[in-house]
Amino acid sequence: MQQFDFPIFKTKIDGSDQKFMLEDPVERRKYFDLKAGPEIEKIRDYLQKGNTFVGFLLGPKNSGKGTYTKLFMEAVGGDRVAHISVGDIVRSAQKAGRDESQKKELVKFLQTRYRGFMKVEEIIASVVDWNISTLLETEGILALVEWEVSRLGRKAIFIDGFPRNIDQISLSLYFRALMGYRDDPDFFVYINVPESVIDERIKYRVICPHCQSPRNLKLLRTKEVGFDQEKKEFYLICDSPNCQGFGTARMVGKAGDSLGIEAMRDRIEMDKKVIKRLLDIQGVPKVYLRNSIPVTKAKDFVDDYEITPGYRYELEGDKVKVIEDPWTIKDDAGEDSYSLLPAAVAVGLIKQTAQVLGL
Ligand SMILES: [Zn+2]
């Protein structure tokens, strides 16, 4: 059964036959300007005047939250927007906990901001010894998120992640506390991605060892593809414009990813349950992002080049030949669907963000 049924966002421009290669940053720039030019201008202007916002990203693990926000930042200019994930925050607090001067700052911050039942020293001790099975109480996570937010200064922020395994009251208190922490507008960003898409994303994902840009060997390639003669395998070469390793860095996969979504079934189910509850929260502006579109509706709502193709590679002499096939998946309701390329989903994020900000 389909758990979330979000409206389909139209990105097709009727009567336009322009085409873009969305994996190419230069073409992507033109694409964003065509599809969301006025909204991008308005958001830039809004940010340049010193305004900010907080967007809470609500999607299961591997639903593309990091990718969509990176593209949002690319489109509107990254220096005034930040993406923070609860996982990264815990890791950075861990680092701070081991460094004397940073630890002092963190302790001072927690002493003024934290309201809960643990002692500040206990929080820091539990963060430093953090492992996957440790659950920090909600108030502790909250204080750490606030700490990270305060360190960023005046920036618009997308916050990725929320405490799991907590009851409805704690959950709404968590968001209310964070929303009250700054006086700028906030909104929820719900992300709906079919499980079949998440599965393939995990199996073929790679990242750049220099700039951590995420890509996918099968679904989201870079411009240049290389071939490893020894391992007899193809690899992507990072093309992120701000990367140190631009044009040379070989993107790499992680051990264990070949298991796909089933390796993290519990986590996915828990995320879905929390998000489903959060859909009912009233009084918060909402942005809905849909990764997939039924095949029968695609023609009216999106342009062909916005649909995710599947890539295969072949060696032709010493050159890599890229072969593009249509990629059809079943969505969670069992309907034949296409998956949209991240840039097309990012257009939805940009336009709806401008809308909820009243621009
Ligand atoms: Zn890179």
Gap between N and C termini, in Å? 36 Å
Q: Give me the strand/helix succession.
A: HEHEHHHHEHEHEEEEHEEHEEEEH
Structural class: alpha/beta
Summarize model confidence as the mean pLDDT: 89
Largest sheet, order of strands side by side?
A: 2-3-1-4-9
Radius of gyration: 21 Å
Which word captures the global form? globular
> Using DSSP, what is the number of strands?
14
Characterize the largest beta sheet: strand count, sense, and whether it forms a barrel.
Answer: 5 strands, parallel
- The level of helicity is 40-55%
Low-confidence stretches: none
What small ligands are held by the chains? zinc ion
What percentage of amino acids are in beta strands? Answer: 15-25%
Overview in brief:
This protein is of the alpha/beta class and 359 residues long. 41% of the residues lie in helices and 19% in strands.
Description:
The two termini are 36 Å apart. β5 (205-207) and β6 (214-216) form a beta hairpin. This protein is α/β, with parallel strands linked by helices and 359 residues long. Helices cover 41% and strands 19% of the residues. It has helices at 25-48, 65-76, 86-97, 100-113, 120-128, 138-152, 168-181, 195-204, 265-278, 295-301, 342-356; strands at 54-58, 81-85, 156-160, 186-192, 205-207, 214-216, 224-228, 233-237, 286-290, 292-294, 309-316, 319-326, 328-330, 336-339. The site of zinc ion has 9 residues, from loops.
In terms of topology, how is this protein built?
Layout (H helix, E strand, L loop, with lengths): L24 H24 L5 E5 L6 H12 L4 E5 H12 L2 H14 L6 H9 L9 H15 L3 E5 L7 H14 L4 E7 L2 H10 E3 L6 E3 L7 E5 L4 E5 L27 H14 L7 E5 L1 E3 H7 L7 E8 L2 E8 L1 E3 L5 E4 L2 H15 L3
Parallel strand pairs: 1-3, 1-4, 2-3, 4-9
Antiparallel strand pairs: 5-6, 7-8, 10-14, 11-12, 13-14
Helix pairs in contact: 1-11, 2-11, 3-4, 3-5, 3-6, 4-6, 6-7
The structure holds zinc ion.
The site of zinc ion has 9 residues, from loops.
